[in-house]
Amino acid sequence: MEALSNKLSDYFDVESVDGRPLLKPQRRHVDLRILDEGLVQTAICRSRIGRIDASIPRLEYRGYDVAELADHADFLEVAFLLLTGHSEPTAILDFKRQVDSYMERLCDLPVTLSSMVRKSTATDFLALSILTALSQREAELKDDSRPLNVAAFLLAVIGISVAVYARGGSEALDTHDQLQLTRTNFIDRLLHAALSRQPELFAVSLMNKFLILHAEHGLNCSTAVVRAVASTGADPFAAVVAGICAFKGPLHGGASEEVGKMYDGIFRESLDVARFIDDCLARRCRLMGFGHRIYKKPDPRAAYMKRLLIDERENFSLILPYVGICEAFDQEVRTRDYFTDRGLCPNPDLFNGILLRRIGFPSEMNTMLLCFSRSIGWLAHYFDSLDSKAPILRPQELYGVART
Ligand code: ACO
Questions:
Q1: Is this prediction's pTM over 0.90?
Q2: Does ligand 1 have an atom closer than 6 angstroms to the CB of 258?
Q3: Looking at ligand 1, which atom is closest to the CA of residue 342?
Q4: Catalytic site residues?
């Protein structure tokens, strides 16, 4: 048998990217295996959509700092930016009109979806809504290669789905009427329909910030799934639904719902947060809302929301007990070596439910509303994957090789 080479340079070209070595196989098929469980080290694509610098830490969408976008931009403008890579006022206005127009064309969707609400969890309902709307109304969109048109349809469907679910499926016709009201913006009309009341300006602004903060986050698990589906040639809606299914897991976006339930339990039973954390550690459970694969310092999105709770204190006075629980977790964890030694900081899920509760949504909708926002990042990656002519994703496995 030929002697195996141990020299990396026999297999890889070594480049430097962002001050780190990058190994590139010398040929498409190199006769070796790389065991990288969880794809911790492996890049499966190149992209210019969202950039994470965990050392600062900072998150950028197409070169713009996410905190600045959350402060100053409108969600649909950010969606346009993520999908196209640029910002053009006239084209953005057209995109907004496209969303409105789909909202009107899907006028009977609330009635169709209403009967399905009580049988599903919020994320399952969202996935079903997308497939239902598509099969009943706009099947030809499956072959549409225009990202903005696909996104406009998807946002309209998701908006309707959120409104119908928030109302528990009741008053479907009323939901439809309120979605059709001409209002200043998409979020305003959506909240009106979801909450059955004219939303306060603060709630509209909070929802806008929330949707911007979560619209894109690089190649996390669900986005990798979306790119995997895109690489098979499947349509964008299949990819987004696959993204939702990956996202709803409790270690990923589902953590937001878990944190919501944790807060509800602590509030209802007046539990002590310090004791709750100690019990969790004693049982070797994962404390939801903490830890991140990439960030070992405070996550910029979590830091943004934490600052918001301080700067807008009065506006959160309606839900102060929940704010208190959230802040107690943040503070208590910082005093425990278990978390500091492992670089386990609050992730956005510790704060998401607080913003959503203040807007008027129950905990069980936390993950669905994150999917609403992330659908844009998923679509941006879907079309980026098509543009880059990515080969079908086909990782290797080591059959029969036991762990050492
Ligand atoms: N609570 C307690 N311990 C934790 C937590 C946590 N939340 N997160 C990680 N750890 C511990 C692990 O047990 C491990 O300890 P060990 O070294 O003694 O074995 C160590 O920290 C490293 O954990 P890993 O699993 O290697 O970290 P990884 O980067 O793979 O996981 C993850 C990241 C999945 C987010 C993890 O931190 C976690 O499960 N957090 C709780 C769920 C959560 O909030 N998820 C939302 C993430 S943000 C998002 O997806 C929107």
A1: yes
A2: no
A3: 21
A4: 292, 349
Please work out whether the CB of residue 197 comes within 6 Å of at least one atom of ligand 1.
Answer: no
**How far is C-alpha 206 from the chain's CA centre?**
16
Q: What is the pLDDT of residue 290?
A: 97
So what's the pLDDT on residue 289? 96
CATH class of the 70-252+381-388 domain in this structure: mainly alpha
Output the residue whose Cα is nearest ligand 1's atom 32.
292
Inter-axis angle of helices 366-387 and 201-213, to 10 degrees? 40
Cβ burial of 119 (10 Å; 0-12, 13-18, 19+) is exposed
Residue nearest atom 40 in ligand 1 by C-alpha distance: 291
The CATH H-level superfamily of 255-359 is Cytochrome P450-Terp, domain 2 (1.10.230.10)
pLDDT tens-place string over residues 100-125: 999 888 888 888 898 888 779 999 99
Q: What are the tens digits of pLDDT across the range 347-399?
A: 999 999 999 999 999 999 999 999 999 999 999 999 999 999 889 999 999 99
Cβ-count burial 252-271 (b if 16+ within 10 Å, e if not): bbbbbbbbbebbbebeeeee
- For the chain, residues classed under CATH 1.10.230.10 are 255-359
CATH 1.10.580.10 domain span(s) along the chain = 70-252+381-388
For ligand 1, atom 29: residue with the closest CA: 293
Which atom number of ligand 1 is nearest to the Cα of residue 286?
1
